[in-house]
Design a protein that fits this description.
Blueprint (H helix, E strand, L loop, with lengths): L7 H13 L6 H20 L13 H4 L8 E3 L2 H10 L3 E6 L4 H11 L2 H10 L1 E6 L4 H15 L6 E5 L5 E5 L13 H14 L1 H19 L8 E2 L2 H11 L17 H12 L9 H19 L13 E2 L7 E2 L2 E2 H17 L3 H17 L10 E2 L2 E4 L2 E7 L7 H7 L2 H10 L35 H19 L6 E2 L2 E2 H17 L3 H17 L1 E2 L4 E7 L2 E5 L2 H18 L2 H18 L31 H16 L2 H13 L1 H6 L5 H8 L7 E2 L2
Parallel strand pairs: 1-3, 2-3, 6-18
Antiparallel strand pairs: 2-4, 4-5, 7-8, 9-10, 10-13, 11-12, 14-16, 15-16, 16-17
Length: 671
């Protein structure tokens, strides 16, 4: 058995310390979150400022803009009708409450009275929380990527009265610079086009909408999956693998849970499906090296556990500092599965560090999980000034003063701490003289002595305690059904593999919470989100498939028929709301979700394709119940996406995992 010479025990010991520091999980941050949003509201009320209509919303992101001088509206017919009545285009701004550059644009532009006056005079302005409405976000992200070649948040989209996009971008500075157009100039130009060249605007909007709508449905008349699809998927993934730093593609580097899942399936197989035994070792090498590089880099929080959302550089050293619930869940699944393929305590310790962080920092008092931690927070040395990574970064002198000589001598070498800072990827000069914790090359493959391990453990405990005294990042306290389903699955798998009853108990508590609070018992349907005691917004396909996925994992582990019965009930509702009886496959939003069009895809994005998880669930239901209708629906759904999968299997990695599963029999073209 291949084993890694890694300091896994250190991580395990730090995890234990971290959990002890989090007595009463959930309650500490619940108060901090309330203060983050409520203090903003109370301060504006006390100052006598006038709120816009977002004051009546419940999304933390929308509430963050409730006292902007911009007259924002929530997405809905009221705003659409106002645009028609006043003959104004729609200015749509999409983001989420823990988005660093959303905060920057809000401060620079949406709190700017001159820009607000332009927006209020010439546009109907809509704010949308992408985490509440991913179906709408997906539509306009497709337009933004088509127009710009890339997307991101904050997303800025201009719509006509048919909700068709005619221009889109991401972050804009308030005024033009040598390198980019400013929002002020853009708004004036769009207003002129709207009044002077309306026919051209509508023609462009129709063309963009036609293109993104055609691309949004990847299903067609059913055909067979090609017999070489696994092999082609391996080749495509191998082509984008970074042999120097691991990971896939160039910077910025994101974790790719679908790719991890597929490669781990191949690594656990006999090699028969690919026709090449070498693929098994190749898959294991790529996924092992990537997960290892992530756990050693700055994308992993070495002091507190958990992963940041992505790395801005190719080396995994400098993250974008958000911590998303879905990131913790899906990455934990990957490390747990890697441990099953190749047992090494380092993988276990990363899972433990990540899940214990979630149970400490992101747990609702009644057992569900909050959505995300912000990338930015108040600087410890400059009250009132917020900066990205402020909670996680260190000056060398701060560390030296906190440690004794032996601790400091080792710590500075182990984490490459430098007097002038160790962050080399800093294009905007935000991290000058600051250090992030990542393992230096000297120690990546070195066995530590017992004394060294004790020194690092002691040093990191001290820094963690100091960090607890810093202003905390804002926590978005929405409870999102899909992301909770992912975490339930991750906790069940980790509880089973590592024989940790606490994780299984946490999964059961979360599943009960979801059933009691996010399930409409009369309609037998799900809500997407809950905040405080407010539930609302109809669930998307993503919510159904991931909650069902977690329930099926719970049933297989506990044999409690309650979970299987609920999974069947919700899947039946999912079929009713999202299934296409003509072409098979599932739409990603229901017919009543007020969206420009309904998309469906087999390709993964930041999250696995919901249709892939749906097929996985259907096959599991067929095996657990013996009901052939579930298998037939899974087969038909696979067939409906076969052309897309056959042409670009590397982009449909989670679906490939389902196809490649040892438990499934799929129609494969043998010609």
């Amino acid at each position: 058995m291949h084993r890694l010479n890694l300091p896994g025990r250190i991580l395990f010991q730090l995890t234990a310390v971290f959990v002890l520091a989090c007595t009463g999980p959930g309650f500490v941050h619940a108060e901090i979150v309330q203060n983050t949003v409520e203090n903003y509201l109370h301060a504006n009320q006390a100052a006598g400022n006038k709120a816009n209509s977002l004051i009546n919303q419940n999304s933390p992101y929308l509430l963050q803009h409730a006292y902007n001088p911009v007259q924002w509206y929530a997405w809905g017919e009221d705003a659409f009708e106002l645009a028609r009545q006043q003959d104004k285009p729609i200015f749509l701004s999409i983001g989420y409450s823990t988005c660093h550059w959303c905060h920057v644009m809000a401060h620079e532009s949406f709190e700017n009275k001159k820009i607000a006056a332009i927006l209020n005079q010439h546009f109907i302005c809509i704010k949308l929380d992408r985490e509440e409405r991913p179906d709408i976000d997906n539509v306009y992200m497709a337009a933004t990527q088509l127009i710009n070649g890339h997307g991101g948040w904050p997303m800025t989209v201009f719509l006509n009265h048919k909700l068709e996009p005619f221009h889109a971008g991401v972050y804009y500075p308030p005024v033009s610079t040598d390198s980019s157009t400013g929002l002020t100039e853009l708004l004036l130009k769009v207003n002129a086009l709207w009044h002077e060249e309306r026919a051209r605007v509508d023609m462009v909007a129709a063309q963009i909408s036609s293109k993104i709508k055609a691309d949004a449905d990847e299903s067609m008349v059913g055909i067979d999956i090609d017999r070489d699809v696994i092999k082609l998927g391996m080749e495509q993934i191998s082509d984008v693998y970074d042999n120097k730093y691991a990971g896939f593609g160039a910077a910025p580097k994101f974790p790719r849970p679908g790719t991890f899942n597929f490669l781990l399936n191949v690594a656990a197989s006999s090699g028969e499906k690919t026709g090449n035994e070498n693929y098994r070792e190749q898959a294991l090498r790529m996924v092992r090296n990537t997960l290892l590089a992530m756990s050693q880099g700055g994308i992993y929080d070495h002091a507190g556990g958990g992963f940041h959302r992505y790395s801005v550089d190719a080396q995994w050293q400098v993250p974008h500092f958000e911590k998303m619930l879905y990131t913790q869940a899906l990455i934990s699944l990957a490390y747990t599965r890697l441990y099953e393929v190749e047992p090494d305590e380092h993988y276990r310790d990363i899972v433990t560090g990540t899940l214990d962080f979630v149970l400490c920092e992101m747990l609702h008092p009644k057992g569900a999980f909050y959505s995300a931690l912000d990338a930015s927070s108040e600087r410890p040395d400059k009250p009132g000034v917020h900066a990205e990574g402020a909670y996680y970064l260190w000056r060398a002198k701060q560390i030296e003063l906190a440690l004794n000589k032996d601790e400091w001598d080792l710590f500075k070498r182990y984490f490459d701490i430098r007097a002038n800072g160790n962050i080399e990827s800093d294009p905007r000069g935000e991290f000058e003289r600051l250090n992030i914790l990542y393992i230096d090359d000297e120690f990546k493959n070195k066995n530590l002595t017992g004394k060294e391990a004790a020194l690092l453990n002691s040093a990191t405990r001290k820094l963690y305690q100091i960090r607890l005294q810093r202003p905390r990042p804002h926590l978005d306290d929405k409870i999102i059904t899909a992301w909770n389903g992912m975490m339930i699955r991750a906790l069940v798998d980790a509880g089973r593999v590592f024989e940790n009853k606490n994780y299984l108990d946490a999964a059961i508590t979360a599943a009960d919470f979801m059933q009691n609070n996010l399930l409409d018992n009369k309609a037998h349907s799900l809500f997407r989100r809950m905040r405080s005691d407010d539930v609302g917004i109809n669930a998307t396909l993503d919510d159904y498939v991931w909650y069902v996925n977690g329930l099926l994992a719970l049933y297989k582990q506990t044999s409690n028929k309650k979970w299987l019965g609920l999974a069947q009930q919700l899947t039946a509702k999912q079929v009713q709301l999202f299934y296409d009886d003509n072409k098979a496959g599932f739409y990603e939003s229901a017919t009543d979700n007020n969206v420009l069009f309904r998309s469906r895809s087999a390709y993964d994005g930041a999250l696995p394709a919901p249709n892939a998880v749906a097929v996985e669930n259907l096959y599991m239901l067929a095996g657990l119940t013996g009901d052939k209708k579930w298998r037939q629906m899974a087969d038909d759904t696979l067939a409906s996406f076969a052309a897309s999968i056959n042409s670009n299997p590397g982009a449909a990695a989670w679906m490939l995992s389902v196809i490649d599963s040892e438990q499934l029999t799929v129609n494969v073209n043998s010609e």
